[in-house]
Amino acid sequence: MKKILVTGALGQVGTALTKRLQQEYGFDQVLATGLQENTILDARYEKLNVLNGKEMMRVVRKHRIDSVIHLAALLSATAEGKPLLAWDVNMNGLLNVLTVAKDAKLKVFTPSSIAAFGIGTPPDQTPQDTLQRPTTMYGVTKVSGELLCDYFYRKFGVDTRGVRYPGLISHESLPGGGTTDYAVHIFYDALLNGTYTSPIAKGTKMDMMYMPDALNAIVQLMEADPSRLIHRNAFNVTAMSFAPEDVANAIQKHIPEFEMHYDVNQNLQQIADSWPNSLDDSAARAEWDWKPEYDLPRMTKEMLIALKMKLKQPVR
Ligand code: AKB
User: Fold this and answer.
1) Looking at the domain assignment, is residue 82 inside a domain?
2) Active site residue 45
3) Is pLDDT of 225 > 70?
């Protein structure tokens, strides 16, 4: 990658990714784009709606882009509330990116998700290649996106790559509209209130990952030798699998007085129950040397230190 356009750059992944790409490739080599005016990122920035393919092509040509990291999408909980909008943004946004990529010869990274799995998928150590019958609109758009990216690679030779992200935990920007968002909110509430009420039930295991590993996955996969890639668009990646009580226990090691309560949100719980408990990421390990650096204890320690500084609390 030399000149990189990021869509959805003002979101949870985009804000962290833009900084990481600037460090790796140079400040001027990264063009952040988003639907809103940019008030948060120190970056080259263009306002861009991914549903406007013509405007996307104009921006790509103007900035001599060679790679797109396409993050703009509605997440699972929001998508269940607005399923038709989710189909429009997630699918037509991706179709525009792929069409522009075909015509302008760009490389494309698109994240899929653990949401691409559903009924009948083996829930534990979910294999790379297995049954995918998601029951959420978000999942439907993710599995369709995986197939569309594979199609553009096979039919038009577009260099498309992607991973199935688990829940992502970070301290830079808050997530919005996801089912795994609780795993970020719990850290804020632990520090601010000493207590957290989980909308996800005890015992509900989901895959999770700390943001630095999620960003490494993008850079590593995009720079991977294409001759080693058997799968392209939907590598299972994971770093840890935990239930709400596991992250609460990890936080209690640093804040012993922290209390966890439960008030289960049935809409979120239904989504969580349809997703795997843990993924098998051996294909990513074999094909592009994927190896996460953060487990739950290491991530918890770093999250609490980073958030204390952000929230201006004394770091002990
Ligand atoms: C969500 O919860 O919707 C996302 C995801 C797992 O794709 N974080």
Assistant:
1) yes
2) no
3) yes
